[in-house]
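My hope is that you will study the protein record below before we discuss the fold together.
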Amino acid sequence: MKWRKLQQLLLALVVSLVLVGCSGGASKEERPIKMGVKTELSTLDTLIVGDIESFSVLGNTVEGLYRLDADNQPQPAIAEKTDVSEDGKTYTFHLRDAKWSNGEAVTAHDFVYAWQTAVNPDKAARYAYMFANIVNGEAAAKGQVPVEELGVKAIDDKTFEVKLNHPVSYFLSVVAFAPFYPQNQAFVEEHGEAYGTSSDKMLYNGPFTVENWDGSNQTWQLVKNENYWDKDNVKPQKVDFQVIKEVPTALSLFENGEVDDVLITGEAAKQLQGSDNFVVEPQAATNMVHMNYTKRPEFKNKNLRKALSLVIDRDQLANGVLADGAVPAENFVPHDFVKHPNTGNDFADDAGNVDKALRYDVESAKQALEEAKKELGQDQFHFEILAYDDPQMKLVAQYLQGQWQNELEGVTVDIRTMPKQTALAEAGKKNFDLFLSGWAAILPDAINLLDILNTKTTANFGDYNNPKVNELLDLAEGDHATDVDQRWQDMIEAQNTMVDDYGFLVLYHPYEGHLRNPNLKGFVYHSVGAKYDFRQAELVDAN
């Protein structure tokens, strides 16, 4: 206890120094922008990437047909011009003159190769299911037809054609996502399984290249790509990254001018609210607990899931434990993420709150647990929570452990923390009981968050399988894709069905609190997809 009090005193001292004033101004000599991030890179392979930090680096170093602008709207990138057929099912992309970082031309064949590889069952691409709207996309991913029958074609080096099963209103946003980026076949095959595992085993066609990442180290750099087609509009020469997991370290580095932007969580974030250098960034994301229905069949008991959910005080977790701007979940999809194309209504407003499932109700939780004990014929439940080893997730895991053990008789919980990429690998192998994780949208469409509820999605790590939810989501992406109102209702019903079923334990919507150098200008932070865009970022002198 004494040590904890000492830590709190030291934290308060460092926060007070930050509030008094940071070193702020950039030197007149150009220096790199310095970023502090909370997790390591996992991969640079655009087809297997699954974590937001790697997505963000790839979003600055590899470029697809389109990219999202500051308002999350798709803008032409490698595609200089796009033709869409009258029935909305054929897209013809005319590519601009662009090069890879080795000087080779980016061609339509690079897109054909990457997209065919994405649906190759042998690749096990994380987002293969997102190609299902393309002709033969789903069949190819299931091994039912050769990947060469995917509805894509290089008409010539500069013309790439895509045929869809049906119109997809948000398709240009889809192709701005990393799994739809091109890959240079010769380079990929030269490096084999090592492709994307370090900065020198990767080709780049975006604004920057990655340097000095060996696959596991906690520092790396983005360096301006002199072969980028729009290099004249890229301002920074270099961006330095370092992984910073402890808040006192982050505070100290910022106060000393050693980072220009760094994530701050917990008590420090609470104390910094309202200060000039503290910026709160919204996230189109939901943090939740996956239950492993395969390894621990007890979770198929709805009363057990209900008990675990109802002892979670989501308001206390978000505003008391995290206190970094996080918002307690009222449903799965957060407010202010996506609006109805015709009515302009917010998705979360139309869906309403699922108060019954997400309320804090200890007595009902205890009753549900007693029913679960009778139905399962057991009085004791021991679970392990797998979580990332960053400060936020540790706090959340400890809170859940305390609530479940203190309020639910017969429930004991251990915590196992790992670096994010290791934890994701464990989850992918189903080596967990409970997995505390987040799911962030990479497209400005509700289906992109809701996809994880579908049993066919590889990121549905616990194998939650509700036939009604699966059917509704499949309809929203298939037969109802062009019926805006019906699709909207399908997604709302799928979401509410899962929450009422306690299929995942929905917790909160994260907001990131950052200390940011006020002299860092032109830096774009996205709520979806790659978190940041450095093309126009620069450090300016304070005057």
Summary: Residues 1-7, 22-28 have pLDDT under 50 and may be disordered. The chain has three domains: 28-62+194-281+512-542, 63-181, 285-509. Residues 103 and 383 are 53 Å apart (CA to CA).
